[in-house]
Specification:
Chain lengths: 262, 382
């Protein structure tokens, strides 16, 4: 188990990437959600029990630089190909959550040969007008927390009672980076669904059953379109899945990646 | 001193449970509350008020742009300006402004303002705004591109107005292979440009560099003072002192025959404006990326209360509304003139929230006949 990850910075053209890294085993590139940049949570700790987990902050998030030239999802895919090259990772496992799940799918579509296996956790990214993703940009922080958790008590501690200016600005910067990539089309790439057939890696799509932000139909559609993908749901859990059910999600991911790596 | 009569064209008929059950009068406030018959009457009443202000001798009559809101019924300010152009004679027709940050096709703005310049015989003033936060939701424009879109659209429009020959325009957000404006504007080189500022030092510098009029948005006088000083400093950095007329103070004004009557009538309509009309949660006001981190830090550190938390007395004390008899309003505006370090234009809102036509016309009339003559020579050059 790795309780305290190593902190690293990668200097790339265009800026510096911050990442956390811990554990031993095959490398896992973990792509964070809209929230969660720079966090090393119980989920990461559990996953690092079997793998070398590498969790960078996306451009504009956490402690990574803005990378102004990374304007849209296609740029973000190239950015992560640069990150893989810089880390010397040829074909890591790629695990992405929510926004990071969308990014992981795009990466696997653009460069199937660079992804050893693929795990999408409650992924955004598909345009399903009949199952709209909730507008997190319009929510108050309190509404967002209420929407993220199946059990509101589980989310009670997420917001500081008296947020200071630096906390508000850090949150605003993360949300601004998210908006840069996903304001319109809203959290989706309309072309992605028909491209998913390009993915060659073994894939698992796992969703929390009570997802009030990204309806489970999104995950199910991914699983239908990615050749050979498996699908799993975790009961009594909201979109903040690795906050609310870290052990269940870490188990699912660990056992899938362990099988996929053989 | 110049005086303009500004209109927001509010839709004042909100439901009784508005305060409890609706987070805002904008974006998600159901349009089922818009009664077409009442709305139709409002448009004609409001245009009558603007025309009346022209006859009263206001130097300008002003309209603006807002979308999907009961706060203001002018999604297209240029249509309102067109309706006024041939029915008014003297006043500048001030479009304050076109929200070029959210326009899909800013070249259309250059064309329409040029047309308005001809319809009004050279009386048009062209304000440019970025568009308010919720409008980036409403028109699906990425707020993280707001500043860039505004700057590019502005540069394109100015070049379209002034270029004597066809050109191509290529910038990150816009591409036009053929820009060849017909008609060219009547005013040369182009109509005067006004930019509202809300504390961004980038905007102060932008205006000072181009010698544009810098106009405040609604805020306490102590805060507006800092903005005006920032603009004056930006001009000083460029080696000049701005003409006082390039600084415009925006404020709601309510004049009645006596102080007592003025306050009795003004309190409910001002409370409507700030607590209902301008009610908006933070996410609507400041969508992600709409402000730079440094500007947002400035706003957070300024410790300004949200509009809906301001009491009537706060509004009066803070210089966010000016209310009273002609004599009291004259005195208060002299005080604010001093407090703000001077300004050469007053952009006054008379039609406030649910005020009646009679109240608005009486207020504007008293202001024009008894206040303007007293203040006319404030900040007179020479």
């Amino acid at each position: 188990m790795t309780d305290v990850p190593a902190e690293e910075f990668l200097d790339l053209d265009g800026g510096r990437v911050h990442l956390l890294r811990g554990g031993r085993g095959e490398p896992v590139l973990f792509l964070h959600a809209a929230g969660g940049a720079g966090s090393w949570l119980e989920f990461h700790r559990l996953l690092a029990g079997g793998f070398d987990v590498i969790a960078p902050d996306h451009p504009g998030f956490g402690k990574s630089d803005d990378f102004d030239e990374v304007e849209a999802m296609d740029d973000l895919v190239y950015h992560y190909l640069d990150v893989l090259d810089r880390l010397g990772l040829d074909r890591p496992h790629v695990v992405g959550a929510s926004f990071g799940g969308w990014l992981a799918a795009e990466l696997a579509v653009a460069a199937p040969h660079r992804v050893g296996s693929l795990v999408l956790l409650a992924p955004a990214g598909l345009r399903l007008p009949e199952h709209p993703i909730a507008d997190l940009f319009l929510m108050t922080p309190e509404e967002l927390v209420a929407a993220l958790f199946h059990d509101p008590a589980a989310g009670a501690g997420m917001l500081p009672a008296e947020p200071d200016v630096d906390f508000i600005l850090a949150q605003y910067r993360d949300m601004s980076a998210l908006a840069r990539f996903s304001w319109t089309p809203f959290l989706s790439n309309p072309k992605l669904e028909r491209r998913l057939r390009r993915i060659t890696a073994p894939a698992l799509v796992a969703c929390p059953a009570d997802d009030r932000l990204v309806p489970v139909e999104h995950g199910r559609r991914y699983a239908e379109r990615i050749p050979g993908a498996r699908y799993a749901e975790v009961a009594d859990c909201g979109h903040a899945m690795y906050f609310e059910r870290p052990a269940e999600f870490a188990d699912l991911v660990t056992s899938f990646l362990s099988g996929a790596s053989r | 001193m110049k005086f303009s009569f500004f209109h927001l064209m509010p839709y004042p008929y909100l439901p009784d449970d508005f305060d409890e059950n609706y987070p805002s009068s904008a974006l998600t406030f159901p349009n089922s509350f818009f009664d077409p018959k009442l709305g139709n009457q409002l448009y004609h009443r409001y245009l009558d008020e603007l025309e009346y202000a022209d006859r009263l001798g206001f130097d300008g009559i002003a309209v603006n742009e807002h979308h999907q809101t009961a706060y203001g019924l002018m999604p297209s300010p240029n249509i309102m300006a067109a309706a006024l152009a041939r029915r008014t004679e003297r006043a500048k027709i001030m479009v304050l402004g076109n929200a070029i940050g959210i326009r899909g096709n800013p070249l259309r703005v250059a064309e329409e303002i040029a047309m308005l310049d001809h319809l009004s015989n050279g009386r048009v003033v062209s304000g440019f705004v970025r568009g308010i936060g919720w409008e980036y939701f409403g028109h699906s424009i990425n707020p993280t591109r707001s500043r860039a879109r505004f700057n590019e659209a502005h540069d394109l429009i100015i070049k379209a107005w002034t270029s004597p020959e066809m050109f191509q325009w290529i910038s990150p957000n816009y591409e036009y292979r053929y820009v060849n404006l017909w008609p060219r504007p009547l005013q040369q080189p182009h109509p005067p440009v006004y930019i509202p500022g809300a504390g961004s030092t980038e905007t102060m510098k932008f205006c000072a560099e181009r010698r544009y009029t810098y106009m405040s948005v609604y805020a306490p006088a102590r805060v507006v003072r800092r903005w005006f000083d920032g603009y004056r400093q930006a001009a000083a950095d460029l080696g000049y002192v701005p003409d006082p007329e390039k600084i415009a103070f925006s404020v709601p004004v309510y004049v009645a025959d006596s102080d007592e009557q003025a306050h009795r009538e003004a309190q409910p309509v001002l409370e409507w404006l700030f607590r209902k009309g301008l009610k908006q949660p933070g996410a609507m006001h400041t969508p992600p990326g709409y402000m730079s981190p440094s500007s947002l830090r400035g706003v957070l550190m300024a410790g300004m209360k949200p509009f809906y938390e301001l009491s009537y007395q706060d509004l009066l004390d803070g210089g966010q509304a000016v209310v009273g008899s002609p004599g009291s309003v004259t005195r208060r505006l002299r005080e604010l003139h001093t407090e703000l370090g001077g300004f050469g234009q007053l952009n006054a809102l008379f039609s406030i929230g649910p005020s009646t036509h009679e109240q608005v016309t009486r207020s504007a009339e008293l202001f024009a006949t008894e206040v303007i003559p007293e203040l006319r020579t404030l900040d007179q050059v020479g």
